[in-house]
Amino acid sequence: MADKNQSKGGPSYVQVVTLIFPSPTSREIFGRQTFLSTTRTLEKMDSDQVEKINGLLERDVELRENIKDQVNELDKKTRTMVGLLNKIHSTPPDALPALLESVRPTLLSCRDVTGALSTIIPPNQFWRWKDMWSNSMRTAVFAAALIEYLSNRALLSLSQAAELLGIKEEFSDRMTLPVEDYLHSLISLVNELSRLAVNAVTLGNFEEPIRISMFVKDLFAGFSMLNLKNDTLRRRYDSLKYDIKKIEEVVYDVSLRKLASPSPRPS
Amino acid sequence: MSLTVVLVVGWALWTDNRNGFHLARRHVIHFLMATSTTASVALPTVTHLFDDFRADLDDHNDRRERLIKASRDITNLSKKTIFLLHRLALEQPAADDQNPGKRAAQQGYEKLREVQNIYSKLQSELVGDRFWRYQRQVSPGLQEYIEALSFAHYLEHGTLIPFDEVQKTLMDSEGVEQYVPLSVSDYLLGLSDLTGELMRFAISGISRRGGRAKAVEVCAFVRGCKADFERMSPYIRDLRKKQIVTAQSLEKIEDAAYAIAVRSSEYDLPPELLDDIVAQSISNYGGVLRQSAGHRKTGDLSDDEDGDMM
């Protein structure tokens, strides 16, 4: 056969033709050794590598669950506080101190959570996990700042907030109160105070909006000093002017109708 | 006064989205500061507090910017290293060269030393709790670096680079201080990108002498990697996404390996002719992949090709 004669030489017309029109005989050699079967098994990751990495990953999972438990605990506390503090909108000024006192124990109990977190978080890993609790922590700081404002008409400082929540200086690589979170809490405070300005008037407390207005304007001036980048803090800061506008409108209404006493400013 | 404040705030609102925003804001600040100083005693403390916050935030934002820039430089250098490795791997090895992969890898390591230098300068920016604070800015560069490093390592050893070895390249010469701590997720995500490079390496080298055997070898390797990563992907969200890309790369190599297996088994062809056929298959392969995201089209394709050859 021509086929057999050609097979000793290089590529030929016949071979190309057989390629295009496979003959039945060509299939018989299919079982022959192929490239695939000659490959030796290669190492990918060796088994202790896999073990090591899985170990690390599982440790993180466990850590995450522990943190989650604490955050749930914190969430319960902040929900209680926010629920209680919501009553400020319907509480007359003379009953306010008692209401604020009733929130304080819950606020101070947040120390248990921050203390626990500071032992759970591995060294230097604060920023790795903080997203898990930053919302809850912001709410807790907001509650603390609101209580401070309503009790003393003063701004709760960052260090005071940290102290109230039991966040110690020596925890700093595991548990700290970042400026950004504190500022978020202050914005929440302004949001809440703009509502309070309106509701205080409804309750017949005409001085409150004026005091709030001054406090909030100071805060706004402070925020204006910051170089914020385009993030949620910046967006929330931009929305502050609506709160200020709302408060100013209340002040405007109260002043024009001479509802507030002539010198409402605290000494 | 309240009226003016309402007006100014209204004006600030209006200018908010316009070009004059910065100017407008500065005016509002001056105005408010001027009115507030006269109106309230609480201000000095507030301004004082916010002065500190500004310093703190500026420090943070500046560092963040510096790290983003550095990370971009690192990504660039790593990408260049990967291209270099691809070029070197495709070069016809010298006759006396026992291990051409090793030679390529050496040049790759040399190039990556530039990246290591950048990391050594970043050490103070990433010290202590800072690494995790800026992890999102640092990770992209780090993963690209790991991809390049692991590619060089593969060319030399044919294995996956171990975790500790990656960390070792990011330490000072005494091996004491880490320039940057290596996280498991960066390590795995960097390795996951390696599979894409290996796909390119296998397919572009397929027409070379010995390229087909290499492609089959890479195919098995990538399959093994994918299986290893599969176990770990539930823990790392981004790895799940990258597993999809790895699966696609793997499929491309498998399709190429399939073509090789079919040709080489059915016909007793000399390698030169096989080279021609495969080369042609590869050149058509790219177009089909782009159309249909590479799903089982090679079968149809080879029919067309045979038709063309007639």
Structure description:
Chain A has helices at about 1-5, 15-20, 25-30, 35-40, 45-85, 95-120, 125-130, 135-150, 160-165, 180-200, 210-225, 230-255. In chain A, helix 10 (about 180-200) runs parallel beside helix 12 and helix 11 (about 210-225) runs antiparallel to helix 12. The N and C termini of chain A lie far apart (about 120 Å). Chain A is mainly α and about 270 residues long. Chain A has a single domain (about 45-255), classed as Methane Monooxygenase Hydroxylase, Chain G, domain 1. The model of chain A is unreliable at about 1-45 (pLDDT under 50). In chain B, about 80% of the residues lie in helices and about 0% in strands. Chain B is built from 12 helices and no strands. Chain B is elongated. The model of chain B is unreliable at about 10-45 and about 295-310 (pLDDT under 50). At the A-B interface, helix 2, helix 4, helix 5, helix 7 and helix 10 of A face helix 1, helix 2, helix 3, helix 5 and helix 8 of B.
Keywords for this entry:
heterodimer, A: 267 residues, mainly alpha, Methane Monooxygenase Hydroxylase, Chain G, domain 1, 0% strand, disordered N terminus, B: 310 residues, 2 domains, 12 helices
